[in-house]
Amino acid sequence: MKTILLTLTIALSSLLLNAQDQTSEKGTTVSVTVPVNSDEGNVIFGLYDEASFLKQPLVGLSSEIIDGKATVTFENVAPGTYAVLLYHDKNDNKQMDFEPNGMPKEMYGASNNVMSMGPPQFSDAKFEVADDPITLDIRM
User: Fewer CB within 10 Å, N- or C-terminus of the chain?
Assistant: First the structure.
């Protein structure tokens, strides 16, 4: 259980600051919207492929919460298989916070609205990117 929570912590904490841009200049867009129950802080989003999942995101973005929603657009995403992870950084400290028992203090979500005990699996959160723009609605 501690290993699962540690993995989730590392993955979600590194979404924004250390993200690398590995998208193609001829790709499409992936727009992601998430409803948020508070206007405090920001929402941190990460775009992953299978090799980077729960490690270092290919691209990390942050969004202000406006009227109960946070939205980002990943630009120039090359065709392939990806997943999105996000969390509500309520206290704006650029990392996901946890209770002493290991339970997350901040809400989080994944593409395909995967909600399970422990971190999501790439096979559950993946989606295909082709030539057309994609719009995702993710719940936390």
Answer: N
Secondary structure (3-state) at 6: helix
Q: Token digits for 101?
A: 């028992």
Domains by residue range for the chain, with CATH: 2-137 (2.60.40.10)
Structure letter (DSSP) for residue 121: P
Residue with token string 């109960």: 68
State pLDDT tens for residues 93-124.
999 898 998 888 999 999 999 887 878 999 99
- Angle (CA) 40 37 82, round 5°: 95
Q: What helix, strand, coil percent values describe the chain, rounded to 5?
A: 15, 40, 50
Q: What is the DSSP letter of 111?
A: G
DSSP assignment letter at 18? T
